[in-house]
What does this fold into?
Amino acid sequence: MKMMNEKKETDFYYTIESTAVAEFKDRGSKFLAYSFPVKNTDEFKKYLQELKKEHSKAVHHCYAYRLGIDGNNFRTSDDGEPAGTAGKPILGQIDSKNLTDVLIVVVRYFGGTLLGIPGLINAYKTASSLVLQCTPVVQRSVEVIYELHFNYTEMNEVMRILKHFKCTVIKNEMQLFCRIETGIAKTEIDEVLPALKEVRNLELHLLE
It folds into this structure.
């Protein structure tokens, strides 16, 4: 029974599906926390640059993100704050809710009073906690990536199957001979693959 539960747990992950902002103040300093759902580092860089441009007069733009489900793809930044006082507490809040594919950026406007190490840790932790309370946590299916090759005449049937099982279309090249990169939920694999294999002349390749 334990092994079955562990397998089931790896079929899903938790994330957020919308952006949010929250504010925390301490002794004159203002901490603006922004949360974003992100899928890759390009999206992270885009959001960070946008916030740096929007808050160009802020003294710090600290952040943390976690991507994927293997636990190894994460990054933190204290952006000039004392080491370990910003990025680590931010990531700690992401991890405390068991989230992934999430970025939190906390923008600080200095209020003139030093908060000290404990005060900074508390401020970044609290701001991050507040912003995660502003957006619902959602459960998503872990997907396995496949590449499909087929004739254009079979496009309607392929898309019907993918839509029926709520598969994610990652890339779609429609020519005389079509190529689709799709994410299939692990929980649906045993139903989706047989359906696709019924499509005439369709080639199926596992990418991940």
Observations:
- The first helix runs from residue 2 to 9.
